[in-house]
Amino acid sequence: MFGPRKSIHTMSSQQEGHRLAKTLSWPHLIALGVGAIVGTGIYTLTGVGAERAGPAVILAFAIAGAVCACAALAYAEMATLIPAAGSAYTFSYTAMGEGIAWIVGWSLILEYSLACSTVAVGWSGYLVGWIQAAGVTLPQALLVGPHDGGIINLPAVLVALSVMGMLIAGTRESATLNIILVIIKLVALSVFVAFALPAFQADNLQPFMPYGFGSTEVMGEKRGVMAAAAIVFFAFYGFDAVATSAEEAKNPGRDLTIGIVGSMLVCTIIYMAVAVAAVGALPYTALANSPEPLALVLRSLQQPVAAHLIALAAVVALPSVILVMMYGQSRIFFVMARDGLLPRGLAKVSPRTGAPTLITLVTGVSVAAVAGFFRLDEIAELANAGTLVAFIAVGACLMILRRRFPELPRLFRCPAPYVVGTLAILGCIYLFISLPSSTITRFFLWNVIGLVIYFAYGRRHSDAREPVPVAGA
């Protein structure tokens, strides 16, 4: 019904010139996960979440984190069972068939490309704030897109193109640089908590849920804890980018498990501490929609030097998120092209670096274009829609393959797989319907375009549909 399925046993065998080099170990993978997870979500979307849920943004972070924890366990089992590039797309191809795999892969392209663009816009906000705090005035027309009266968000475009250049230089080199950037981010967030937590005031948490728990329309926008969870959810995902690196892991069974589960645990602890410190130190009305909420909190506490350093750390370290997300998207594009669903010429890797140069170039240019012209909150919400579909698919794949192939050795076994898989699916569906209706409409339009491409090109050129040669013929 959903097209041909790929065999688990043949997923890792690829032709020379279309095979990714094994260059990553578990420290690289934890850094990839933390590098993707800790970024725009906590540095910039804290303000957006506070506007939608008030102080209950803390609860929104907890709900989004719980849903992601279920998805992370499913990803860990699937990535070690099928250690091939492509994450949810590859898992869906094996468990459910080509048609579902295409929808998941097309949604992942939306997730990763828009996630890159979201972070680039968030990075631009911190850069402009940091420069202006130093007394330098820049032309507004080159700092924001047309939606805010400008021409183009030039800093966002430049950072996206710079990260593209780093990825073209090679995967291991990019991953090593990412470790350094992750350390800078973690130190900066620790400094923020150390300064903001002592200023905690219980009065700032009242009323705790000004817009209620569910997702309701207020002045044309969805407000409430679940509406906030649907956007701060962006702050948690990123561990799925670790799964896209499965083919490049030196020891997939050990390294992928540590990378996925480890990065989620580290980031959940960090996020709860930062959210409590931020909302407790400053009324949520002051935080609402600030492009640099953490620096704003420190400035309000008369800590201009710390605010300056936090903003500088964001400027230096947020590109690590762009790096990981752009890496993830290029690998999804790469695997879909290698399978014949997109032009196969895109699936060539560089003999020198073992990285897919052409597809990285295409990815970088498209990310830069979106970052230059669109709003941060709209980009993040649309990226979340793609991610939620991918997480739903992985939860389903976990349960399907447990039922279909229970005897296969699993280097990481998800506890209570049918419970975890069901919770991941139901949680993601609820977050999906909590997104703004305009976002859901755009997401379905994106997939309509994708299905047109699939039936016009991908279905006819798919490797899985080519006839298998008969021996001796």
Low-confidence stretches: 14-18, 468-473
In oligomeric terms, what are we looking at? Answer: single chain
Structural class: mainly alpha
Q: Which strand order do you get reading across the main beta sheet?
A: 1-2
CATH superfamily: Amino acid/polyamine transporter I
Number of H- or I-type helical stretches: 19
The CATH C-level class name: Mainly Alpha
What coarse outline follows from CA principal-axis ratios? globular
Supply Rg.
Answer: 21 Å
Helical content band: 55-70%
Reported CATH architecture:
Up-down Bundle
Between the first and last Cα atoms, what is the distance in angstroms? 30 Å
CATH topology term: Amino acid/polyamine transporter I
Secondary-structure element pattern, one letter each: HHHHHHHHEEHHHHHHHHHHH
Count of the separate structural domains: 1
The number of E-state strands comes to 2
What is the average per-residue confidence, as pLDDT, rounded to a whole number? 80
What are the key terms here?
mainly alpha, Amino acid/polyamine transporter I, 19 helices, 1% strand
Describe the overall structure:
The protein is mainly alpha-helical and 473 residues long. It has a single domain, classed as Up-down Bundle (Amino acid/polyamine transporter I), CATH 1.20.1740.10. It has 19 helices and two strands. The protein has helices at 26-37, 40-43, 45-53, 57-81, 87-95, 98-133, 154-169, 171-196, 225-232, 239-244, 252-281, 284-287, 293-300, 304-317, 319-338, 357-373, 376-404, 417-433, 437-461, and strands at residues 216-218, 221-223. A two-stranded antiparallel sheet has the order 1-2. Strand 1 (216-218) and strand 2 (221-223) form a beta hairpin. The protein is globular.
